[in-house]
């Protein structure tokens, strides 16, 4: 059973998502919150698999709520998915940097929404190639990063290659094809890179790759 926490300051939005989720046999909404502070408390109480968190809320917004969840060892199993009306804006980017597994625009189709919840619950980052490319576009007008995150020097050549391909928006199957390895080996390279770089998921791995200068935008 996938346990979901809804965090949104609009009761109507929460009710709509809850009605949709309650129809599914493998998904259970365990709690609802109207702001990020309440959401954080309920996350600690219920330990959900997924926290669907609105990006803009009173008291504590979605970015800060994500940051606090990601920083709490007791909530390591909670995957934050950001909800937004605006697409990939600055707030969403900051939430991804803070540790969100991905984001959803609130006008998403119901079947896509349910699929996304299941994807995130499996521990996979909710970043389709099209979304990853939008993350990349965020960097096109910027100079390469100069950061040096812990673990960067520990990456093997193959792990660096896998990270670069993740940052270009490729799936594990596509990475396997490019590197002429099995999908399982590709996944292993990506997972080891995430561990060494302390990235919670592929979303954060993409951000680290660009901010560290490990990968640079190509402008196309």
UniProtKB/TrEMBL annotation:
Alphabetized UniProt keyword annotations: DNA-binding, Phosphoprotein, Transcription, Transcription regulation
Domain annotation Response regulatory: ranges: 3-121
Signal peptide positions (record): none
GO molecular function: DNA binding
Modified positions (4-aspartylphosphate) in chain numbering: 54
Domain HTH luxR-type: start-end pairs: 148-213
Protein origin, superkingdom: Bacteria
GO annotation terms (biological process): phosphorelay signal transduction system; regulation of DNA-templated transcription
Database matches in SUPFAM superfamilies: C-terminal effector domain of the bipartite response regulators (SSF46894), CheY-like (SSF52172)
Name by which UniProt lists this protein: DNA-binding response regulator
Species in which this protein is naturally found: Planomonospora parontospora
Lineage start: Bacteria, Bacillati, Actinomycetota, Actinomycetes, Streptosporangiales
